[in-house]
Amino acid sequence: MKMFDFIRPASIDEAIAAWRPGAAWLGGGTNLVDLMKTGAAQPDRLIDLGRLPGLDRIETGAEGATRIGARVGNADLARDADFARRFPMVAEALLSGASGQLRNAATVAGNLMQRTRCPYFQNPETACNKRRPGTGCDARGGVGDNYAVLGWSDDCIATHPSDFCVPLAALDAVVEVIGPNGAREIAFADFHHLPGTTPDRETALEPGELILALRLPAAAAEFAGHARYLKLRDRTSFAFATVSAAAALKIEGGIITGARLALGAVAAKPWRAAEAEALLTGHAPDAALFDRAAEAALSDAVPAHDNAWKIPIARRVAARALALAARGTPARMPALPASVFAAEEPAHV
Amino acid sequence: MSLSISFTVNGTRRDLTIDDPRVTLLDLLRERLGLPGTKKGCDRGQCGACTVLVNGRRINSCLTLAATLDGARITTIEGLAQGDALHPVQTAFIENDGFQCGYCTPGQIMSAVGLIAEASAGEDLERIREGMSGNLCRCAAYHGITRAVQQATRRMAEAEQEGTA
Q1: What is the dihedral of CA B109, B115, B121, B123, to 10 degrees?
Q2: Which residue from B65, B114, B134 is facing A33, i.e. has the nearest CB?
Q3: Residues A73-96: pLDDT tens digits?
C-alpha cells in the first residue's frame, strides 16, 4: 500500500481545509482500504471523518423529510425501526448487501461513493479508462459478463454495484454536500454520472466536496405499504447483484396512483425507469401490466459484452419486484432480504 | 508521521504510538499486541476470519485502519472466556462440532457473538445462516456452526431470563 498522510479533523471546517488534490475522505473504509491494498486507489492523504460531529444522526423533520447523516452506518439505518417502517425497500436493500461485519462498518455516504467491482478496474495491472484515463478498457475484450446493458460507452462498460442507491434513486433522494465554495444539494438522479468519454468522473461532486447527509422527501414514505427490493445474485447472501430492482406502488381503490421503479447493476448508475412508471400509473395492478412496464424499462438495453442474457433477466426481476410490491410490504423483514428464494411473508393488513 | 491512540483491548487500556498509518487493526493485534487469536485469511473483508468486536459490534479488522480507533473498545477471541469458564458461544461450538481445522473459528465465534447481540436472527436457522454469511469455512462445518449459534442464542437468552427473574 502506498504511504499516505493521515489527518483526523475535529470539525467540518477543518476537514474541508485539509483537502487537497490526491486526498480521499475516509468513512468506514470497507471499499477504500480494500482498493488501497490492491493499488487501484492510491490516495496520498486520508482524511478520517470519524471525529466530525453530527454526521451520525437520523432525523425526521416537521415536514416529514428524513435526513440521514453521512456517517450513519448501513446496519444502523436498516435496523432503525422508524426508518424501516417508512422506507422499507431501502432497509431491505441495505440488508441484502455485503455481510453483517461490513454493514456495521460501512457508512451511507461511502455507499454512494463506492467504486465499481469491474475486475479490471480493481486490478492496477490492466488498462482502465476509469482508473487511468486514456489507457483503454480491458473489460471489453476480457472475461466476466456482469457488465452494463444500459448507458455504457465505448470507454467503459462497468456497473455501479450499490444496492442502497437503487431505492434511493427510485425515491428521489437528495444529497447534501459542502465544499470550499459552500454548501449545495444534488438531486440523486444527477449524482452518479454515465461514463461517456470521461468514465473517471463518476459523480457530480466537485474536488474537495464532502457529503454531509442524504435526504428522503416526505413523499417517499407514501410508498411504504407496497415497496420491495429484489436482487438476483450468484449466491443467496454476501454477493453483488447480477440485476436488482426497487419497486414501489401507491394503490388506491384498486388502481395504481403512483409508481417508482429503478434497476441496479445494469448501468454505471442506478437506473430509474420513468417510462415504466408512467405506464403503470392509472391502471389496476396485474401481471400483464408489470410485464409491459418491465419491457419499457429495458427498451433501450444493448449488451456491452457477452451479457445479452442480462436483458431478459432484468425484465423478469423488474416484473417480479413490481408483483411483490403490489402484494404488499412484508410485516417483517424477510429472513433472506431481497432474495428470490425468500419464503412468503405475510403482508401488511 | 506518528499518531498517538488509546483504546482498550479485552478490558486493558493500551496507549500506542503508530508510526505507519497503513497498519490495520488485524496486523496491530497479531504483530504488536501479542494477540494472534484473530486470524488473517483473505485480508480483504471477504472471509471473516479477522472478525473482532469494536464497541460491541462485529467488524472486519483487516479493513480497519488502527489509526481510526482512538477511544474504541475492542474485544478479540482472547477476551471472551472468563478464566477457565468459556463463553457460551465457545461452548456451543465445541458441543455442536462447529469446526474442523479451526482456522476460521475465532472469526466465526466473534461474528456469532456480534450477531446474537444484534438480536436480528433469534433461533431461526435461515436468519442465522444469513447473519453468518460474512464468515467462510473451507472445511464447510456450516451445519455445526449454525446449530452452535442457535444453541448459544437460546442458552444466553435463558441465562438472561434467570438473571432477571
Answers
A1: 40
A2: B65
A3: 999 999 999 999 999 999 999 999
